Amino acid sequence: DCDEIVVGNAADSSCTIPFQAESLYSTSEYLYCASEIGKGGIVDTLWFNVAATGNFAVERIRIYMGHTSSHNLSGGWENLSDLQEVYFSNNQTIATSLGWEEYPLHTPFEYDGTSSLLLVVVHTSDYTTSMPKYYNHSTVYSSSVWRASDNYSDSCASLAPTPCGVISNVRPDI
What is d(CA 34, CA 31) in angstroms, rounded to the nearest whole number? Predict the structure, then answer.
């Protein structure tokens, strides 16, 4: 049985999230509540909805998933040490065509269906002049926190919790 669950409504196409393409390094954390997902099960593929292509060459992408009892990220970063790495890629070009872009997980994630889902995207890339855009949507709660930098030493490419970051109510459609 293969269920596709979509969270988001393609309400906005102006953001470069989840990859923060305007910076060399970024870490973004997104929260999706159980009530938005609807049920538990094995997650073996993640999709992001490309709104504007950019043929963005990414040196490294890491995606992590985890459970949390939190219902918002208003306090900033959740504990990132309990997350499971589910996707890793070197030298990948993303956003080459419009629509849903597939990320088959190297390690399927067993979502429990009752906790909120944490999704963390870490990227390292070169500069690009044609930044891809992804469909995203606003929530009534703080659903994302991110940091981006052109300086690797700012810890933007690590999972180390830091006091820095932008808290927002905008997150990518998945």
Answer: 10
pLDDT in tens, the chain (174 residues): 457 888 888 777 777 777 766 677 788 899 999 999 999 999 999 999 988 887 677 778 899 999 999 999 988 888 777 899 999 998 888 888 899 999 999 999 999 999 999 999 988 877 666 678 888 888 999 998 887 777 655 444 455 555 567 888 888 888
Q: How many residues does the chain have?
A: 174
Both tokens of residue 101? 């872009």
Q: How far apart are the C-alpha atoms of 97 and 93, rounded to whole Å?
A: 11
Is 0.85 topped by the overall pTM?
A: yes
**Alpha carbon distance 28, 70 (integer Å):** 17
CB atoms within 10 A of CB 168: 19
User: What are the DSSP calls for 79-126, one per residue?
Assistant: P-TT-EEEEEEEEEEE--SSEEEEEEEEEEEEE-SSSEEEEEEEEEE-
- Distance from C-alpha of 32 to C-alpha of 113, rounded to nearest angstrom: 11
